[in-house]
Amino acid sequence: MRTRFTELLGIEHPVVQGGMMWVGRAELAAAVSEAGGLGIVTALTQPTPHDLATEIARTRKLTDKPFGVNLTILPSINPPPYDEYRRAIVDSGVTIVETAGSSPEPHMGFFREHGVQVIHKCTSVRHAVKAERAGVAAVSIDGFECAGHPGEDDIPGLVLVPAAADALSIPFIASGGFADGRGLAAALVLGADGINMGTRFMCSEESPIAAAVKRRIVEATELDTTLIFRSLRNTARVARNSVSEQVTRILADGGTFVDVQELVAGSRGRRVFEDGDLDAGIWTAGLVQGLIHDVPPAGEIVTRIVREARAVLDATQTKFTP
């Protein structure tokens, strides 16, 4: 299934496994790429740049097809050594990087110098246009349905995707709310050049999270997420559990980030994924969990979605036959 995005990156199918903290490891990324999609290793899941280089090497042993690395750049009191992670990426020969968080502009010169194609993830058309001006090769645009941070505009994909298509000249992929071939077909019709999925790939055999988390996503419906940090204008969509509900109550009662800081610590969320304790902390999941009903191999997810999309598009065409 060829689109501008597949042609740009030399992949077979316009299906991307987006970068996910604690999830984007070698086995998952390689399985997606081996099936013809684009797998993504998450840089900051690795504790040091050296560990990232090792993880990239592991991925390369599992597939000789293109894969990328996610580098999420956020303001922090004690920021990671981003320059060293960038260096590890290019020294490892990776030529595709997914950036997220802050503007990619400060990093574009370095990546351009080393022949790296940058896909920037953003949540609004205005940020996508700004990223295009900064020189990124492609954009991944997140609708309000997505897991993690959907921004503060609350624009769902049905409006955001065609709005982005009208505003951008570079290839872009749609993210948030995609799990099957119907979603891929819809994204293509709306003007996107592919789709990016996180929650769907969390529920794959190669996903390194606990089986209990995968079962919970399969059992959950589209009603089983909650939005936290709204009053702080740092909205995050997470799975509904006792911790996320407690955070919501505290902030609704006038609490500040300090009052919930211990509850939302990343170390607690990591315990959810590693130990399967669903109430150990907050963990991200998108509305699309209501469309996820199994835990197949990641490669099967890619090929199934492409096969379904072709069938959906063919069936839809017959509805317009005189």
Description:
The model has no long low-confidence stretch (mean pLDDT 96). Helix 4 links the parallel strand 3 (67-73) and strand 4 (96-101). Helix 8 (181-190) crosses helix 14 (298-318). The protein has helices at residues 4-9, 26-34, 49-62, 82-91, 105-113, 125-134, 157-167, 181-190, 199-202, 211-219, 242-252, 257-260, 266-275, 298-318, and strands at residues 15-17, 39-42, 67-73, 96-101, 117-122, 138-142, 172-175, 195-197, 225-228, 236-239. It has an eight-stranded parallel sheet. Strands 9-10 form a two-stranded antiparallel sheet. The chain folds into two domains: 4-208 and 294-318, Alpha-Beta Barrel (TIM Barrel), CATH 3.20.20; 225-284, no CATH class. The chain contains 14 helices and ten strands. The chain has 322 residues and is an alpha/beta fold.
Strand and helix layout:
Layout: H1 4-9, E1 15-17, H2 26-34, E2 39-42, H3 49-62, E3 67-73, H4 82-91, E4 96-101, H5 105-113, E5 117-122, H6 125-134, E6 138-142, H7 157-167, E7 172-175, H8 181-190, E8 195-197, H9 199-202, H10 211-219, E9 225-228, E10 236-239, H11 242-252, H12 257-260, H13 266-275, H14 298-318
Parallel strand pairs: 1-8, 2-3, 3-4, 4-5, 5-6, 6-7, 7-8
Antiparallel strand pairs: 9-10
Helix pairs in contact: 2-3, 2-14, 3-4, 8-14
